[in-house]
Automatic annotation (TrEMBL):
InterPro entries: Haem_Oase-like_multi-hlx, TenA_E, Thiaminase-2/PQQC, Thiaminase_II, Thiamine_Salvage_TenA. GO terms for biological process: thiamine metabolic process. Residues 13-213 form the Thiaminase-2/PQQC domain. One of its GO terms (molecular function) is thiaminase activity. Transmembrane segments: none annotated. Pfam families: TENA_THI-4 (PF03070). GO terms for cellular component: cytosol. Signal peptide: none annotated. Keywords: Hydrolase. This is Aminopyrimidine aminohydrolase. The lineage of its organism: Archaea, Methanobacteriati, Methanobacteriota, Stenosarchaea group, Halobacteria.
Amino acid sequence: MAFSDHLLDIGEDIWAAQKAHPFVTELANGTLDAAAFKHWVKQDYRYLQDYARLFALAGATARDESTMTHLLGVAHQVLETEMDLHREFAADYGISESELESTEKAPTCLAYTNFLVRTAYEGHEAEIAAALYPCMQGYLDIAEHMADLADDEHRYTPFIEMYTGEEFREATEWCRAYVDRCGERYPGQHDAMEDAFLTSAKLEHRFWEMAYTREGWEL
């Protein structure tokens, strides 16, 4: 079994919980409260800044030139393309670019990005690969699930189309293959890879909850 498949097997319950989350199911049928989606846009924008940093740092630790080149390219793509799409989402919902930039990370977003950046600085290349995998594979799987649930086009259709598009599929497939290469090359890192994968996957689930409840720093 490919190591990426093994990781998905041990994270099966987390994937099921994500697919059943009301943020996911309500976005799929177009009934999600706009305030919850706006919270997701602002928090995910801040998340992506550190997700790009994770790819850049992963590129710095890569052992071969082609992997280094690709990881640094993904970091640039996140900053230039995916964050641009978030700015478009934000504009559609009346959120200015300055508001995006000044958004304070909610506790869950802060916990997730701190975990990713710490892993990037302190972890092995294989551990970094496993930590970044749940976001890409998860968004593809969840968006495909949303597409299956959706009956008609609605205001959230562009979200579903973005994460089921060919470009995102190709990026996810490369990430999956990268995890498999790390699993084969570094068998001594399998436990660390599992821990990193499961932590990121759990935080992915909590991210939906954070957006749905519009989590902040309330006392």
